[in-house]
Structures are given as C-alpha cells and as structure tokens.
C-alpha cells in the first residue's frame, strides 16, 4: 500500500520533465516556474480536500475491525522511543544507509540531463531519460513494496542497494540511448525501492511506538544526502570536466550501504522489547 501511494511521486517525475521542457521552449524558465507552481498549488489543495483522518468519518470501520475482538483493537503500540533508538547501532547504520541513498538519488536526478547532453544527446531527448527514471521509479515502489510484504523489508532493501550500485557503475560507460534507458530501468526501480521501504524498515527495526518521529529522523539523514549529492556532483564536474567520478563515488558509497544493511538487525524483539 505504501508503494502504491508513493508511486505518485514517480508519476510526477515521469510527467513533469517533458512538460517543463516544452514550457521552457515555448515561454522561458520564469514563466514556466509560475505555471508549474500554479498547477501544483491547485492540485495539492484540491486533493487535500478529499483526505479523511480516519475511516469513521466516512462511515467505515478500520481494516480488520470486523475480524478481531474489540478489546484487541486498542493495544498499545510497542517499540523504541526516539531517545532509545538513537542509542542503538541499528539506528545509525540505517541513518547512514539512507543518507548514502539520498546522495545518489539527487545527484542523478539533478545532473542526469546535463550528463546525457554532454554525451551529445539533445536536451529534449535527455529529458526523456529523467522521465523514464520517474516511470520505472513508479514501478519500483510497487514492485519493491510488494516484495517487502513477502520476503521482508531488509532483504528487499539489500536488493535495492545492489541495483543502485550496478546502475551507477553502468552509467559511467553509457554512451548510447539504449544504455541510458537501461540505466533508467535499473536505477528507477532501486530508487523506488528505497523510498517505498523507508517506513516499513523503520517499523521492522524499531516498532510502532514512535514511528512518526523515527521515520522523520531517518528521512532527515536521507535529506542531508539529497542536499549534498547535487552539490558534490556539480563540484566534481567543475574540477574534472566529467560526472563519471561523481557516479563512481555514488556506486561506491551505496555499495557500502549494502554492507551496512547486512549488519542491521531489529532493535526490538517480536514482543516489542529491546
């Protein structure tokens, strides 16, 4: 379910780059920003009006409420608090892994179009690579989310890390459009996997007691990586004249992330205790 909901981000990544390219070529980037911002404002506010806090507000029961006894519906959520979690090795291994993933994801999203155009591809065609990443990202969220339901979040996260490292290594040698689309396929699925698995893996490792704040804390690590990645990749391009070193660094650090995931074990027992 998380994968399906988050797939909307991938759909946006698939649709917006070609639209933005068309708008910029028709008007200029300033007008294009105003148009895209206005569309986002209208759509987000409109969609928010349909959100309901709980099923009771639309006359429905919570999922499974008609299958279990009422007294079992009010069980206290178990797990670690944020203060307890940050004292564990598991939290920091997971935090660093998602920081690495954020670094790689945004370095690619921001710089893939300039990189592809450096290879002699037109800007319009290069934008389709970013759109393809969005499309495969959408599929990846659903595929990896479904896989996590069957085999667990940790094994699926390991697969995502391996795929991302392979994709970035492949990108270094890519020169033709089919190679870039192959990269988009592998990277998009792994990208979607990381985002779809963020919430489930936090619950799996630390429980439901303070899921919201723990999810925010781990996502904060990812956000730091997302801030560093584009700046670092741009700086390396300015120094070396190529994005290859940035992509190789990304492949290396996400490979380290794969090792870190292997070391992560749930910080709570099945009963919810440390």
Describe the structure in brief.
With 274 residues, this protein is an all-alpha fold.
What does this molecule look like?
This protein is an all-alpha fold and 274 residues long. It has one domain (2-263): Growth Hormone, Chain: A. 76% of the residues lie in helices and 0% in strands. It has 9 helices and no strands. It has helices at 2-26, 29-48, 82-85, 89-118, 123-151, 153-173, 177-206, 211-240, 244-263. Helix 4 runs antiparallel to helix 9 (244-263) and helix 7 runs antiparallel to helix 8 (211-240). The longest helix is centred in the middle third of the chain and has 30 residues, at 89-118. The radius of gyration is 20 Å and the shape is globular. Residues 69-75 have low confidence and may be disordered.
User: Mind telling me which CATH architecture this is?
Assistant: Up-down Bundle
Separation of termini?
Answer: 28 Å
Can you tell me the overall shape?
A: globular
- Helix content range: over 70%
> From the helix content, strand content and strand pairing, which structural class follows?
mainly alpha
Q: Average pLDDT across residues?
A: 85
Gyration radius from CA atoms, angstroms = 20 Å
Which stretches are poorly predicted, pLDDT < 50 over at least 5 residues?
69-75
CATH fold-type name: Growth Hormone, Chain: A
Identify the CATH class: Mainly Alpha
What is the beta-strand fraction? under 5%
One letter per element, helices H and strands E, the order comes to HHHHHHHHH
């Amino acid at each position: 379910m998380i994968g399906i909901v988050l797939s909307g981000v991938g759909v946006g990544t698939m649709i917006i780059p070609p639209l933005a390219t068309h708008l910029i070529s028709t008007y200029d980037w300033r007008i294009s920003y105003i148009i895209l911002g206005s569309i986002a404002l209208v759509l987000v506010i409109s969609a928010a009006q349909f959100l309901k806090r709980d099923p009771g507000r639309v006359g429905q029961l919570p999922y499974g409420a008609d299958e279990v006894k009422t007294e079992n519906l009010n069980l206290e959520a178990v797990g670690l608090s944020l203060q307890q979690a940050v004292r564990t090795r598991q939290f920091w291994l997971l935090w660093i892994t998602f920081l690495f993933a954020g670094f790689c994801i945004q370095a690619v999203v921001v710089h893939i179009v300039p990189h592809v155009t450096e290879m002699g591809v037109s800007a319009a065609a290069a934008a389709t690579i970013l759109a393809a990443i969005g499309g495969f990202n959408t599929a990846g969220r659903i595929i990896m989310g479904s896989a996590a339901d069957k085999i667990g979040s940790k094994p699926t996260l390991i697969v995502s890390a391996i795929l991302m490292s392979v994709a970035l290594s492949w990108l270094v040698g890519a020169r033709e459009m089919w190679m870039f689309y192959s990269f988009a396929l592998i990277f998009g699925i792994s990208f979607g996997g990381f985002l779809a698995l963020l919430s489930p893996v936090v619950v799996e490792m630390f429980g439901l007691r303070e899921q919201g704040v723990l999810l925010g804390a781990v996502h904060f690590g990812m956000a730091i990586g997302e801030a560093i990645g584009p700046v670092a990749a741009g700086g390396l391009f300015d120094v070396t004249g190529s994005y290859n070193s940035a992509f190789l660094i990304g492949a290396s650090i996400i490979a380290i992330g794969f090792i870190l995931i292997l070391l992560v074990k749930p910080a709570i027992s099945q009963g919810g205790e440390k």
